[in-house]
Design goal:
It is built from 9 helices and 11 strands. It is an alpha/beta fold. Among the domains are: about 90 residues; about 120 residues, OmpA-like domain (60s Ribosomal Protein L30, Chain: A, 2-Layer Sandwich). Helix 2 packs antiparallel against helix 4. The protein is elongated and about 120 Å long.
Length: about 375
């Protein structure tokens, strides 16, 4: 009898252990699903994702915020479904801007979200427009073609500059050693003409070096490395429409933070730019500060941030970077600091100000 009872006890114990293990596995699986299901959904539309996979990380300003749960094709675009932790609900603003970045040189793809600067929080559920991926392959091909040419030009320019420096040093050595004098330099037209020629050659050499650097502007993905306000704002082959805003109407004093009034002021320009969908059209946003303005922030840095803030707002709220389902155009943000417009271009108003230019090819 005792032996039979012990047998039943062993069976009951085994059944209890099996049930316990099943419960642990069940809770583990459900727990993982619960962790995934927690938070809130957010859809992001990209023109292409280039290797982004389900399970990829989603970050907000570099902080882990969630993951990609699904990737779908829709009308020639890619819809990326993500799920973010609830603590980021109050962080994301209405003008939040997502983009796809690589983790290291050979790492996978990650979705990085800039939370935005608008005063309104992002409504949930919502669908955000993601930034297009830069065409690095095409850019690298063009860079490979331009590289040898740029290297040769730069070498020639530097050689010319070295020769100029040597010639100037010889002239000054002659003055210092007694073969010339400041008085003779001032009265001798030959020496004067030589110095003028040296100065002109120096200017030409520096301009040549500048032109070599500016050639990088034509390479997709590398245009942001070199500033070229002249190329961006002087468009003789385009029709132009422009808007001008005093800094005080858009930003909080001494910052790049758009005010409620500033956001409303930009509505007309944003809607007008969004209506223009002609191929080859471009938008340039240029911010200017007052000469000698002392806000505690370098004027170039401040104007850079102001132009970028307006560009991000127009992209996020009016999709000014899009001219169709699969077509995009360049939106350039220029921080001009306290410099005047290039090539004698007439200012639209007194500084500090922000200008928006819409350039449309005449043909």
């Amino acid at each position: 009898m005792l032996r039979k009872q012990g047998k039943y006890q062993n069976l009951a114990l085994a059944a209890a252990l099996l049930a316990g293990l099943s419960a642990v596995v069940f809770l583990f699986l459900k727990g993982g699903q619960a962790l995934t299901a927690a938070g809130f959904p957010l859809e992001i539309v990209f023109p292409a994702v280039r290797g982004l996979e389900v399970g990829a990380r989603v970050r907000v300003l570099g902080v882990q915020a969630g993951e990609v749960t699904k990737i779908e094709l829709e009308k020639g675009q890619v819809v990326v479904l993500t799920r973010l932790e609830n603590r980021f609900r109050e962080v994301l603003k209405a003008d939040a801007r997502p983009r796809i970045v690589s983790e290291g040189l050979v790492g996978g793809q990650t979705v990085e979200i800039h939370p935005g600067i608008a005063s309104e929080n992002l409504e949930i559920p919502n669908r955000l427009q993601g930034a297009p991926l830069p065409d690095w392959e095409k850019g690298l091909e063009q860079l490979a073609e331009l590289g040898p040419k740029l290297g040769k030009k730069a070498e020639e320019s530097l050689k010319s500059l070295d020769e100029l420096t040597l010639a100037a040093r010889k002239t000054l050595d002659g003055v210092n050693s007694g073969r010339g004098s400041l008085g003779k330099l001032a009265t001798d037209t030959t020496l004067y003409e030589q110095m003028v020629r040296l100065t002109q050659q120096g200017q030409e050499a520096l301009r040549a070096i500048t032109r070599d650097a500016e050639a990088m502007q034509s390479v997709p993905g590398f245009s942001g490395l070199v500033r070229d306000p002249e190329r961006a704002l002087i468009r003789p082959d385009c029709k132009a429409k422009s808007w001008f805003f005093p800094e005080s109407e858009l930003f909080e004093p001494g910052t790049a933070l758009l005010t409620e009034l500033g956001l409303k002021k930009l509505d007309a320009a944003g809607k007008e730019c969004a209506k223009e969908t002609k191929t080859g059209s471009e938008i340039v946003i240029a911010s200017y500060s007052s000469p000698g303005e002392g806000s505690g922030i370098p004027t170039r840095v401040l104007t850079d941030r102001q132009a970028e803030s307006v560009a991000e707002h127009l992209k996020a709220n009016f999709s000014v970077q899009k001219t169709g389902w699969l077509s995009w155009r360049r939106v350039t943000a220029l921080g001009m600091g306290d410099q005047p417009p290039p090539a004698g271009k007439k200012p639209l108003g007194p500084a500090p100000r922000l200008e928006i230019w819409l350039f449309v090819p005449a043909k």
